[in-house]
Amino acid sequence: MTITNNNKQVTVIVRHNVRPEKQAVFQCWLEGIEKACQLFSGFIGTDVIKPLDENKLHYICIFRFDNFLNLEQWMASNERAQWLAKCIEFSDIVPEYEHYQHHGMDILLGSSQNEAGQKMSPLKMILMTILGLSLPVHFIPGIVASFIDTSVVITLTSLTLIVPIMVLFIMPLLVKLFGRWLF
Fold first, then answer.
1. pTM (2 decimals)?
2. Is the same domain home to 76 and 33?
3. How far is 141 from 179, CA to CA, in rounded Å?
4. Residue 62 to residues 39, 139, 174: CA-CA distances in angstroms?
5. Keyword DNA-binding: yes or no (predicted)?
């Protein structure tokens, strides 16, 4: 995976399959690994999604770091390896790592494939960009034209408004909504 901007928050999502009789052991382990994470630079927090089905005890653990490099330091650490070795106390299965998730526009500006090696669909990117541009391109030039008479200045002013709106607001929102769909 290629990362071009290491200053964006990232997460790793891990699924633990916990044996029913070992839920208390898992809870203690979770508290311990979270305390270990807190010793690492850039650790933001952990969220745990508890299982909905009592017959399938799949806990989803979400570990958040302030940037990719800090996450990688945790992922490569001996402390993490020691905590993972303790997973056999509550699970017969090795934890499943769902994905790294880069927040914001990293999906657009960074790698064209996700951590599973799936390529981003160019057609889907085109469709998402058209969706994002539709309203600004329709409305902004008309609004600008009500203040300016010269077509070149209307175009340049409209672009000066549309591009930052797209980059700062619309595309991050669309990536958040459709990010998984892109692959």
1. 0.52
2. yes
3. 29
4. 17, 40, 22
5. no
